[in-house]
Specification:
With 122 residues, the protein is low in regular secondary structure. The protein has 2 domains: 1-56, no CATH class; 58-103, no CATH class. 0% of the residues lie in helices and 11% in strands. The strands form 2 sheets. It has a 3-stranded antiparallel β-sheet with strand order 4-3-5, with no helix packed on it. A two-stranded antiparallel sheet has the order 1-2. Strand 3 (71-74) and strand 4 (79-82) form a beta hairpin. It is extended and about 50 Å long. It holds the Pfam family EsV_1_7_cys. InterPro entries: EsV_1_7_cys (IPR043822).
């Protein structure tokens, strides 16, 4: 199912179909924690398992720093990510927030998923 509405224009029975949810049964929170080897967010902070780490966004690669990365520094082999406090001098790129998909025109017919697992509505 494709997302059709932004949060502002959704109706009460619409659910978020773009973002995965915590794997814990009946939890509706967005996951932030996962396994280091695959970096896929699987659980929320309440339901994270022992050994899972924060993977929802890149963290600064400076040792002991827990800030979100805001700068990408190409190093010839790959990319390194740093917060603004730890970025090295020289060439770097500011990480830009992802642009949202525009909300659909409310007058067009759309395919929506109902929150109580009813058949898809037109």
């Amino acid at each position: 199912v494709e997302a059709k509405f932004c949060a502002k224009h959704k109706l009460t029975h619409h659910v978020d179909v773009r973002h995965r949810r915590c794997e814990f049964q009946n939890c509706t929170k967005l996951p932030s924690f996962g396994w280091h080897n695959d970096m896929i967010p699987r659980c929320c902070s309440t339901h994270k398992k022992d050994g899972q780490v924060y993977v929802a966004s890149r963290l600064c690669q400076e040792k002991e720093c827990k800030k979100r990365a805001s700068c990408l520094v190409p190093d010839g082999v790959g990319n390194k990510f740093f917060c603004s406090s730890h970025r090295p001098h020289g060439e770097f790129y500011r990480l830009q927030p992802v642009k949202a998909i525009p909300c659909s025109d409310l007058r067009k017919p759309m395919l929506l998923k109902n929150a109580v697992n009813l058949p898809l509505l037109l």
